[in-house]
Amino acid sequence: MKLICIGRNYTDHIKELENEKPTDPVVFIKSDNAILLKKQPFFIPDFSNDVHHEVEVLVKITKLGKHIDKKFAHKYYDQIGLGIDFTARDVQKQLKDKGLPWEKAKSFDGAAVIGKWVDKSEFSDVNNLNFRLEKNSSVVQTANTSLMLWKIDEIVEYVSKYFTLKIGDVIFTGTPAGVGRVVANDKLKGFLEDRELFSITVK
Ligand code: ZN
How far, in Å, are 50, 157, 166, 182, 192 from residue 133 at the CA level? Predict the structure, then answer.
């Protein structure tokens, strides 16, 4: 399975990293080695001094599809989740400056937290979901999916032009503002509409 990630999908986060507002979604892939195993701590890799949390709403693909029209996109996912796209910001910056791919900064072991899944039917509108990340019990990132530049169904349409979506693939829909460095002993908890979907310790 693959993890398809969207970058720069919230205006406030584009501003904080001083990125240009994209005309198309920024898309990258994390490979399955990046998935943080259940109940495991997140270990900061030794090649980075600036690993950032990025909390993101997740979508799990439940049906094979390619060239999916946004009108039908909702038929390709049944569950919504929350996770973290851990990013070695220092490594990413070096790679970006050279115009090189980002995998070393984004797809290292443990860099993808996937929390518990919630049936989409439990929500009245996936485009109006509050979510937040708490670090050591303080809220560090908070947003609502209505603030996405590209909504979930538009993302499914866009990425399926390039990649066949397979059962079990996960889409990371982008992070809002508030990204920041993690250090050893930080405790990170993610909430989607006040349901706690993950809790991890940084080592
Ligand atoms: Zn991200």
Answer: 18, 28, 28, 12, 9
